[in-house]
Amino acid sequence: MSIDTIPSRPRSAADRTRRDGLQRHERRSTGRAALHEYASTIGLAALVRRAGTPLFVLDPARVAGEFERFAALLPFVRLRYALAALPHPAVIRTVASCGGGFDAVSTGELAMLAHEQIPASDAVFSHPIKRADDIVAAAAAGVRLFVADNPAEVRKFTGVNPELRLLLRLRRAADAAGHPLDGAHFGIDTEHALNLARFAASIGVRVAGFSVHVAASEPDAPAALSSMLHEALRLIDEGNARWGLGLDTIDLGGGMPAEHEGGEGVDAIAEVVRNVLAPRVPQLRVLAVLGRCIAAPAMLLATSVVGQATRDGEIWHYLDDGMHGSFAGLRGSGEVPSMFSLGEIERAGADEREPLYPCTLAGASTDGIDVIARGIPLPPLGLNDVLLCPDMGAYSLVMASNFEAVHRTRVHVLRPSRAQSKRTVSV
Ligand SMILES: Cc1ncc(COP(=O)(O)O)c(C=O)c1O
User: Fold this and answer.
1) Does one domain contain both 130 and 47?
2) Which of 45, 141, 287, 335 would you label with 126, given CA atoms 20 to 30 Å apart?
């Protein structure tokens, strides 16, 4: 049945369940076809057989493709890449070659830029809380723009370097139901933001403007971002008109969903940014920080089945990667990554009606939390069969530990010059 034949207003819970199942099935078929095409373009099967698993396959062409997509969507915005998502040298080099700057939250990340001989003068040091030594080191490395959100932090900048400027991070306190929002552990309440800017000016610390961050996972993120940007503009106007603070910069943070998470979200957010901020450019400098939307499509994970069991009637597959490794970023999120067997990707198109069975996937450790997904539909798998998870580049490798002395998953970098489609595999 095609998705067109699904009733748009299901009459019952059973109808809804059936519709959701069909949509999932449809998405999986589309994702499988896209991955089939991509895998044949890059010779994935041979690569995985040669290199073994677990293995990340990093594709610089995808980094460039996504960066260029955002540059076209937000032509007046200075794009920074959030190194926290995936600070791999190949990603750093690609972003730099596309003309992007960087967002760092530690001196370690700045050292990675230095290692690639990329000047830090265009980088933002955006951790709102820093050791005084780190500020001095970052300034010596060339960073000129920092984030702060409280008087004690602002004081750390006195006398460091007269060229440094601060962005004051604005806080999003709680949603309408009173739940704290993602990132609420940072930021100054907007009603105190101008007092903090005036305090900074009074001790000789320059403030450039304000930074905000609305997480991609938030419901109605475009509306939330719109209200934060309006608030930041209001503060800039009031600060300049009443106190002559010379504020001229807004950093709209991250939160652009990756394409596989729902590309339409990006268009809505980009529209908000264009509508609210474009009329104020060029007097206003606008920065954005891209993390997950660049890093996620950059890497695909290949992992193998190393053990199998049936428990309480469920099929369990144990993998050579897990929640203490490359899936660590999923902890507590309730998200299930897209997964395909290498076999079905090689066969894709041959038999569209290949049966799928609900499986539980567990990781490589002995820890009870090391369950990656339950009830995930997969084709029949045997020992040593390979599973492919596209769009796994963001907050994956960086979150992995070496718990139980297991090494982090290796990364194979594809040649950047390879001719191929730059689009993301959307599943
Ligand atoms: C302040 C700030 N900016 C940017 C980012 C990057 O966000 P994303 O990965 O959603 O693009 C984050 C991530 O948590 C953040 O906290």
Assistant:
1) no
2) 335
Per the CB < 8 A criterion, the answer to whether 193 and 170 are in contact is: yes
Q: 188 CA distance to ligand 1 centroid (A)?
A: 17
CATH of residue 378 = 2.40.37.10
pLDDT tens digit sequence for 116-131: 999 999 999 999 999 9
Pocket test for ligand 1, best of 211, 213, 399 (most atoms within 8 A of CB): 213
Q: How confident is the model at residue 184 (pLDDT cuts 50, 70, 90)?
A: confident
- State in Å: Cα 289 to ligand 1 middle: 7
Nearest atom in ligand 1 to 395's CA: 9
> In ligand 1, which atom is closest to the CA atom of 216?
10
Same domain, 41 and 84: no
Q: Are 360 and 272 in contact (CB under 8 A)?
A: no
Which ranges of 130-262 does DSSP label H, i.e. alpha helix? 132-141, 151-155, 190-202, 221-243
Give the Cα-Cα-Cα angle 73, 295, 71 (nearest 5 degrees). Answer: 20
Examine residue 183 and state whether it is found in any structural domain, yes or no.
yes
Q: Best of 86, 168, 289, 399 to mutate for ligand 1, by most ligand atoms within 8 A of CB?
A: 289
Q: How many CB atoms lie within 10 A of CB 82?
A: 26
For residue 292, give the ligand 1 atom closest to its CA: 9
Same domain, 307 and 398: yes
26-30, 167-171, 279-283: segment of lowest average pLDDT = 26-30
- Domain interval for residue 33: 3-58+296-413
Q: Is there a single domain that holds both residue 204 and residue 272?
A: yes
Cβ–Cβ under 8 Å, residues 16 and 10: yes
Indicate the residue among 273, 294, 315 that finishes a domain.
Answer: 294
Distance, in Å, from the CA atom of 287 to the CA atom of 78, rounded to the nearest integer, reads 5
Return the CATH number at 190: 3.20.20.10
Coil, helix or strand at residue 45: helix
347 C-alpha to center of ligand 1: Å? Answer: 38
Map tokens 């809505």 to a residue. 268
Ligand 1 pocket, CB under 6 A: 82, 85, 126, 183, 213, 216, 253-256, 289-293
The protein residue whose alpha carbon is closest to atom 15 in ligand 1 is: 254
Q: Whose CA is nearest to atom 11 of ligand 1?
A: 291
Residue range 42-56: average pLDDT? 97
Q: Is 32 in the same domain as 70?
A: no
Model confidence band, residue 18 (pLDDT cutoffs 50, 70, 90) = low
Are 301 and 290 in a shared domain? no
Last residue of a domain, one of 244, 279, 294: 294
Distance 305 CA to ligand 1 centre (A): 33
